[in-house]
Amino acid sequence: MFASTQETTALPANNLFTLVADGAPSHNIKLSITRNDLRTELDLLAEVVEAKQVYPLFSYLRLEALTDRVRLRGVGLYNTLQCEVEADVQQAGSVCLPAKKLADIVRHLPTATIDLTSNAEAATLKCGDSRFKLKTQVADDFPALAEATETIASIPSEILLTMLRTVLFAAAKTGDNGRYALEGAQLSFSPAGLRIVTTDGHRLLCVERSDLTRDEPVRLLLPRHSLPIILKLLSLAPGEVQVRRNDNKIVLQHGTRLLGCTLLDGTFPDCEPILATEFQHELTLEGAMFQAAIQRMAVFGTGGTGTSFGVIKFRFAPDGSASKYEVQSHSPDGGEGHEEILPLTTDTQAAVTIGFNGRYLLEFARAISASAITIQYNDARTSVAISPATNDGCVVRYILMPCLV
What we know:
This protein is an alpha+beta fold. It contains eight helices and 28 strands.
C-alpha cells in the first residue's frame, strides 16, 4: 500500500512539471493571415519604428499569436503602438520580427493569404508562390505598452483629426526654442471646451470647440514627432478615441489600436494674453480668392532663407480708397508681384501696409480651406489675426507677428 501511494503521488508531480513547461511563453508560431489586413497595420506601425534605433531590439516588431488574432507592437524612442489583426492561429506564441523587412515584404505580396511559421531563430512567410525567411528575436524582453489609468476624455476621432490636422504646420520644427517647449501641440480640456494650440514663437494657431468640455481643467503637451502617427491613426476609421494619461505618458485608444506617446515636460508659453487681443479693424475676403492670391504671390514671397526671406504684404485701402486693396510679394533678390483684391466686407478707410514672412502665409493658405477669411488688425506693427469661416463647430485663429520691412 505504501509503495502504491508513492506511485500515485509521483505521477501528479510529473504532470505538474509538464504543465508548467507548457505554460511558458512559446516562440513557435503557426498562423494564416490576410495580406491586406496585415499591411494596413504594418503601414501604421512603420510610423513608430524609427530607421535608426538606439536599442537594436526596437527595430523589430513584437508579434503575438493569440487564439483568433495577432497582436503587433512597435516601439520608438517617443511612441509605442499596439495593433490587432484577425487571424487563423494554429499555434499561439510570440516572437520578434524585423520591422522594415517585414513591411517591405508584405507591401509587395499579392492580395492573398499569408502563412507564417516561426521559432526562436527564424520565421518563414509563404504567400502564393513567394517564400521568405526572416531572422527572429525572442520577444520576452520587448517593451510593454505604457499603462494609463486616468481617463481624460472621449472624443470622436473625426473631430480630433480635424483639429490636429489644422494646427500641425504651425508647431516649431526644432527643440531649440529657449526656455519654452514649442515643438508640440498643447491640448487644453476645461469647462469652456477643448483648445489645441501650436506656436513657433512668431506665429500662433489656435483651434477650439466649446462642446467638448471637462469639469477639471487639464493640459497635455504632445510632441510634434507624435502628431503624424496620431493623424494616421485617427484617419483609418471613424469612432470614439479614449484619451488616458499616466505621469508623462498619454495613451490613445482607437478601436483595438493603442498608441502611447511620451509627453513633453517643458513649459508651454501662456497664450491667453495673445488670444485675448482686441482688434480695431477687420475685413473679410473670399476664401478661394485669398488662397489663389497667396499661391500666386508666393512665387516671389517665399524665397530666401534665415533672416533673409521673402515677404508678402497686404495693402489695405491705399491712398484712402475703400474700394481698392492689394496683395504684394517681394523676394530678397528684388522680384515683386502685385495683385488687386476686392474684400467682401470692410470697416476701415485708413491706408495701411502690413508685411509677413511669406512662408507663414503660404502654409496657412495650403492647410486651410474656407468660404471666407477674416483679417483683423490694429496697425502695421502689432499682431494680426486671420480666421477662416468654418461650419464644423471649430473656431480657428491664426495669429501672426508682422515683419517690420
